[in-house]
Design brief:
By secondary structure, this protein is of the alpha+beta class. Helices cover 38% and strands 21% of the residues. The strands form three sheets. Strands 1, 4, 5, 9, 12, 13 and 14 form a seven-stranded mixed beta sheet that branches. A hairpin with a 2-residue loop joins strand 6 and strand 7. Helix 10 crosses helix 11. The longest helix has 30 residues. The N and C termini lie close together (8 Å).
Length: 496
C-alpha cells in the first residue's frame, strides 16, 4: 500500500527557507517559534508558557530594520514617533513631549479663536449711492387730529354722531354731550360699526390731490383704514420717475362750508409700504393745522442685512419692527380688556371680538391713553423687537419746512430730492474657506501637520480602540480555541 502525502507542506521543512545569511537566520528563529507554539498549544500549557508579544515581534524583526506594528506608526508629525519609541533616550523623549504639548496647546487655542470668530458671522458693510430711473414713493397716511386718546369725540364727525344718536334715541335727551352720546351708542353698536357710521370722511375735505402728477382721488389710490386716531386715508406708494418740488405728492384740504365743527387739524405719516399704521400714525406723524403749508423732502435709503446669530433677520419684507411693536401693544390691550379696537386688525387678533359695550369702550380708551400717551404699563422696548426685522429695509429720511397761508386751508407736499438712493449692504467677511485656511496654517506652523494628518490621527485612534476591544477575555478565549483547532488539523496523522 502506498503512502498518501499530505497536501499541506511541513512547517519544519528546511527546504522552505533559503540558506543565505540574514534571511536564513530569521527563518530559523521563526521555525523555533513555531515549534514552541505547537508544543504549548498541544500540551495545554497555553497560559503558562505562552511567549510574549514582544519576544515574538523581536523574532520576526530583521537586523537593522525597525518593526512597525503600532497603530500610531503612520502619523508623520515631527517628534511624534520619538515620543512613542521606548528605546529612545529618555531626555530626548521628554524634550519632544514638551515641545509637542506646547505646540498642540497653541494650535488648539488659535483654532478655537478662529472658530469662535467664524461663528459670530462677521460682516463688512459697503455704502454706495446709486442713481436709478425710478424710485418707490413712500406710503402716506392722513388722519384727523385727536387732543387725547380717551373721553373725547374729536375723532368722530359730530354731525354724523348726532344724526346717529337721534336715530336710535328719538324723542330722548338732547344731544348736549357728544362723549356721553358716543358711549350710549356703544351699547347698541360695536366700536368698529360706530366708527364707520360716525367717523370723519376726509375725502370731503380734500380740495385737490396729486401724486406723481396724477389725481389721487380719481385713480383708485385712496384707501380708508383705521388707526388709533380714527378713520384715516391711506395713499400707497407708487413708482415715480421724476423728482423735485413740483413732483411727488401734493394734497390740499379746505373747510368747504366754513362750519365751525369741521375738522381743522390733521396728522400725516410717511412710511414704507410694509410698515403698520395703527399706532405709528400717532407716534411718527407730522402735525398740520389749517392755514399752514408743510413741505417734506424725502431721501431713500436701502439697507440690505445678512442673517446673523446675534442679529437675526427675516427674508420676509413684511416682518418689520413696527408690526412686532403693534402685535405687542395689541396683545397687552386685549389681555386687559378682552376685546379689540377697530385698528387692531392683525392676523393674530382677528378672532377677538370688537368692544361692544360702553364699559369695554371706556376701559379700552383709558388703556390707550395710559399705554401710548402716558407710557404707564407698556413700553416698546419691553417688546424685544430690536431684531424682529426684515433683511431688506427701505428707509425714508425726511426734512420738512412749514409756511403760513392766507386762507383756511392746509397743504402737504412730499417729494424726492433727486433720483438717487443710498444702499448699505452687508456681506459676510469671514467664510468657511478663510476658516480652513487659517486652521491649516496653524497646523502647518506649529505641528508641521495638515488635514490629512488629522485624518491619520483619527484612523490610528479608531484602530487602537479596535485593538483594545479585541483584547477582551471572551474574545481571547474564542481566538485560542480557534487556533487550537487549526493546529490539530495541521498535525493530524497522515492517512494510508
Amino acid at each position: 500500500m502506498t503512502q498518501r502525502k499530505s497536501s499541506l507542506p511541513s512547517l519544519f521543512s528546511p527546504s522552505l527557507f533559503p540558506e543565505d545569511g540574514v534571511t536564513l537566520h530569521c527563518f530559523r528563529r521563526r521555525r523555533e517559534i513555531h515549534r514552541r507554539k505547537l508544543a504549548w498549544m498541544i500540551g495545554g500549557k497555553m497560559a503558562e508558557e505562552q511567549p510574549s508579544n514582544s519576544n515574538v515581534a523581536e523574532s520576526f524583526s530583521f537586523p537593522g530594520v525597525k518593526h512597525q506594528d503600532s497603530c500610531w506608526s503612520d502619523i508623520d508629525i515631527a517628534g511624534f514617533q520619538t515620543v512613542l519609541d521606548r528605546q529612545a533616550n529618555l531626555i530626548r523623549r521628554l524634550i519632544w513631549l514638551v515641545v509637542l504639548t506646547i505646540c498642540f496647546a497653541l494650535m488648539l487655542l488659535q483654532t478655537l479663536d478662529r472658530l469662535n470668530y467664524y461663528l459670530t458671522l462677521p460682516v463688512s458693510t459697503t455704502v454706495r449711492v446709486i442713481r436709478n430711473d425710478s424710485l418707490i414713493f413712500p406710503s402716506i397716511t392722513l388722519c384727523p387730529y385727536r387732543d387725547t386718546l380717551t373721553r373725547d369725540a374729536t375723532h368722530l364727525d359730530l354731525e354724523k354722531l348726532q344724526s346717529l344718536y337721534e336715530t336710535n334715541f328719538p324723542g330722548g335727551e338732547d344731544f348736549n354731550d357728544p362723549v356721553e352720546a358716543m358711549y350710549k351708542l356703544a351699547d347698541m353698536y360695536d366700536v368698529v360699526t360706530l366708527w364707520k357710521l360716525s367717523g370723519w370722511e376726509l375725502e370731503n375735505e380734500i380740495s385737490s390731490c396729486l401724486q406723481a402728477r396724477l389725481n389721487c382721488t380719481q385713480n383708485g389710490q385712496v384707501e380708508r383704514i383705521f388707526t388709533v386716531l380714527g378713520y384715516c386715508l391711506h395713499f400707497p406708494g407708487q413708482p415715480v420717475t421724476v423728482s423735485g418740488h413740483f413732483y411727488g405728492f401734493n394734497i390740499k384740504l379746505c373747510n368747504k362750508d366754513n362750519a365751525t365743527d369741521k375738522i381743522n387739524r390733521f396728522y400725516m405719516m410717511i412710511s414704507d409700504r410694509y410698515s403698520t399704521h395703527d399706532i405709528r400714525a400717532l407716534t411718527h406723524g407730522f402735525f398740520l393745522e389749517q392755514g399752514w403749508n408743510k413741505e417734506v423732502a424725502v431721501s431713500l435709503k436701502h439697507f440690505q442685512a445678512e442673517n446673523k446669530n446675534h442679529a437675526p433677520c427675516s427674508p420676509d419684507q413684511s416682518m418689520t419692527v413696527s408690526r412686532c411693536i403693534s402685535q405687542c401693544f395689541h396683545k397687552t390691550l386685549v389681555e386687559k380688556t378682552g376685546c379689540r379696537m377697530p385698528y387692531m386688525n392683525l392676523f393674530n387678533f382677528t378672532s377677538v371680538p370688537y368692544c361692544n359695550t360702553s364699559q369695554q369702550l371706556r376701559l379700552a380708551e383709558d388703556l390707550q391713553k395710559d399705554l401710548l400717551w402716558e407710557g404707564r404699563g407698556w413700553h416698546p422696548a419691553s417688546c424685544q423687537c430690536g431684531y424682529a426685522s426684515t433683511c431688506s429695509q427701505y428707509l425714508y429720511e425726511t426734512s420738512s419746512d412749514t409756511f403760513a397761508r392766507h386762507d383756511e386751508c392746509a397743504q402737504y407736499k412730499v417729494y424726492f430730492i433727486d433720483m438717487t438712493y443710498e444702499e448699505t449692504k452687508e456681506e459676510f467677511a469671514y467664510d468657511i474657506i478663510s476658516l480652513l485656511c487659517d486652521i491649516g496654517g496653524t497646523l502647518g506652523l506649529l505641528l508641521g501637520a495638515s488635514v490629512l494628518t488629522v485624518i491619520q490621527f483619527v484612523d490610528a485612534l479608531s484602530r487602537q480602540i479596535a485593538k483594545w476591544l479585541m483584547k477582551t477575555p471572551e474574545l481571547v478565549k474564542r481566538q485560542k480555541s480557534s487556533m487550537f483547532n487549526i493546529v490539530q488539523t495541521i498535525v493530524k496523522p497522515t492517512e494510508y
